[in-house]
Amino acid sequence: MKGSPRLRALILIAPLLFFLGLFFVWPLITVITQSVSDPAVSRVLPRTADLIGDWDGEGAPSAEIQAAFRADIVGATDDQAVGDVTRRLNSSKSGFRSLMGKTVTAVRENPDVDLAEVDKRWADPAFWKAIQDNASPYTDSFLLAAVDMERDSAGSVVAMKEGTSANFTILMRTLWTSALVMLCCLVIGLPYAMIAASVTGWKRAVLLGAVLLPLWTSLLVRTAAWMIILQDNGIINQVLTGLGITSGPLALIYNRFGVVLAMTHVLLPFMVLPIYSVLITVPGNLMSAAASLGAHPIRAFLRVLLPLSLRGVISGALLVFMTSIGYYITPALLGGAGDQMISSVIAEYATRSANWSMAAAIGLILLVLTLALYAVYNRLSRDPIQAR
Amino acid sequence: MMKYAKAIYATLIVVFLLSPLLVILPLAFTSSAFLTYPIPAFSTRWFEELVINSVWSRAIVNSLIIALATTALATVLGTLAALGLRSQDLGMKSQIRTLFLLPMVVPAVVLGVGMQALFVRLGFNSTYWSVIIAHTVVAMPFVVISVSGALTGIDRRVERAAESLGAPPWKVFSLVTLPLAMPGVLSGGALAFATSLDEVVLTLFVAGPNQRTLARQMFSTLRENISPAIASAAFIIIVGTVVIAAVLMLSRRKKA
Amino acid sequence: MSENFIRFQKVTKDYGTVRVVEDLDLDIARGEFVSLLGPSGSGKTTLLMMLAGFETVSAGAIVLDGQKINDLPTYKRDMGVVFQNYALFPHMSIAKNVAFPLDMRGTARAETAERVQKALDMVQLGHLADRLPGQLSGGQQQRVALARALVFEPRVVLMDEPLGALDKQLREQMQLDIRDLHHRLGLTIIFVTHDQDEALTMSDRIAVFNHGQIQQCASPREVYDHPANRFVAEFIGETNLLEGTVSAISGETLTLTLPGGASFQSHGLPGFSTGDKGLLSLRPERIDIYPQGEAPAGVNTLAGEVTDTVYQGDHLRVVIETAAGRIIARINRKVSEWENGAKVSLGFRAQDGWVIAP
Known about the structure:
The structure holds three protein chains of three kinds. By secondary structure, chain B is an all-alpha fold. In chain B, 77% of the residues lie in helices and 0% in strands. In chain B, helix 3 (54-85) crosses helix 10, helix 7 (156-164) runs antiparallel to helix 8 (169-198) and helix 8 (169-198) packs antiparallel against helix 11 (229-255). Chain C has two domains: 2-233, Rossmann fold (3-Layer(aba) Sandwich); 238-356, CATH 2.40.50.100. Classes of the chains: A mainly alpha, B mainly alpha, C alpha+beta.
């Protein structure tokens, strides 16, 4: 009678679903596959990779596997890809570099040559073992490396040698900085939200406007403003030295202080607004009611107002924490080398060293962490209207 | 006593919140080559720099092209989706809504890595399209939220009234639903525009040297040498945002 | 044909497992004013929404002017609907609102302007044509909604509690206005309300709803004086209910004997047999109060004692404790005043009582 309303709704959301599937979900899936995929060997040696999994690791592999290996080498025409494979195998078992060079030349001349005759090392199972270990198109080595772990030669997971990688340290630093920002936002934001909810008229308008205005202005502009304020010849240092309080400029920028201060400023609205929106639903005379029942103001606050605002506090805290662990711009601009957060590491791997698998692996950890926090946030803050 | 403490505290935080904006705006007009106070003399030399220096002017043009295209794409997709989400008969509605809001949640760097990998493979990274698409993904949630909000404000009975008065479904939509949702569509579009204008992280991954945007240019200038051109660019962004917000407020007030 | 302009035939509406309207039959004649009256959730609004085409019919048929309209889209039904919250288009001027149905029908511009002006003049709002709905008072908005629903001369006018949001005085004025329009234009109006006074004032017939079924559909006088069952008797107006056994039947007069031995002569529903249980419905204003033993001959009498009197301006509400239980009477203050504790005799005529099934 009205077309099918369900069909009409589907047609309306289909373009966005399609768009997001293509340009949002697929990129994230790319991150996931990139972080666990290691196709260097299996792409160049597909037949060998197919068969060598069945090899028991004792003695030289069967003639069938050796034939597959020779066929793969004949088929591998991309010398750069072959070079990649050689490098990979060499890092598992040294000696592969010279072995591969020799073998490739020999097999290309005579595809049916006996490998053990080309080089006696092919009779050593250790070299075949290296191929077997690297044959799988999937690997957990990047994910392990993202938290400073690796597999030893026996295949069990162990911590990397100290000093070889700082990923885990930076991950912990990210969590710690975010927690600090969250705490600052809470300490500043909770009383502020309570005051904003307790006043009316122009006062409330000013207090809310002061929160909303920064939210609407560019993040980049706000970060730039903090750089101007905090720099060595910025306003604060000028005032301090001008008044003779300090003899030289204080280091306010390119350190943890600057990062936390600016991020607190940027994220404060995310703390204030959820608390405020919970508090304005609390009847204004509740505190008076508590007082009339004989509660001291501080007691009334602790027993009445604080529990009521708890839902807003938790929402706000989660929101701030979740947003700050993924922050890139503010730490990148205001932090020193020792203040970089996990996002900077990802960007570094991706843009500077073009190590996509590492970037994706660390990115996956950040993604999972963020989505888990969001799931909690979503469950907590879901109101009946939205759930309908 | 308690009252004064409250007032002082609130004032301090308001100053904390607003001071960065108040500090950066006057510096747009400094005559000095440094972004410091006191300002020796007022001048518009840094605005001229934005126009004359081709790096900046090109970035401004790029930002406008990309932000306008993003606004158009995000507004159309987001508005349609918000209309679809309004239906009572749609299954998995809250899951779909969550998916639509997720781009606001996923860390930009992670999304950027994925987008770059995918766009390179699809062969259109470092084009205007790659930037516009990336910006649309993160700008679209604002449109969905804003239009959904406007739609829930529409009384179903008004649409029913139109239908009973002889309007077929598409006329109900074009004469009643859409005009009433228009404020939401407009503010969603404005938010999408502002989001695109301010986007840096995804741009770092998916844009080539030819798609350098204003925000991207500001970011690298801030990293390398802080020039007052930053303050002028910030001034343009802030004033642009305020103008858009004011226009929206006025158009909404007229309706109400 | 005019007898059965609108027919509901075994109409049923289910929402999931909940049945809101059940096997409902109702015929409405052309030019009739029918009120659908009932408590909220009784199915009256659902029935109206099905007639307007906003809700589908689960089973049964709705027939308009000989044509089954179950599957006809709303916009082709040609019915003017007036909603409780007016449902004016907030972004269109008053004149544009009223012109909307004419525009939908492709009416020529000059004719549209003329008819809009006429419709607005009819509701005395011609001077506000250029305002937006938000600038009008509630009463004015409802009159615009009325003009908009009437301007295209619909086959039927449906009103869903249209006066519910107005204050009492305005509501009573609008009731008279709508009744006047009904007579003047010969409109067929179906009017949903939960306000019994409104239904009694305006309707040719009232359909009383409960649990998705029509309990009684009759003229206001009939529904009030001769309720079909206990629900109708209690829902419309105030009543005293006395339970007893039918001990004799003579023409339209029944004799009802109460457990305490007292017996009354009363009219009642047809179909009673001697020995049936019966319920005497006695409206408070039909009861007269006399000093004990002074009731005139030929009326039913019942002795009692006044336990409470409530002054209500134009009348006095008197609570009397009797052997048959507590009786409420409403008396004109010009006739008499009663003190608490006064010993009295109650009296009522056979035609003032009505016996229904318990």
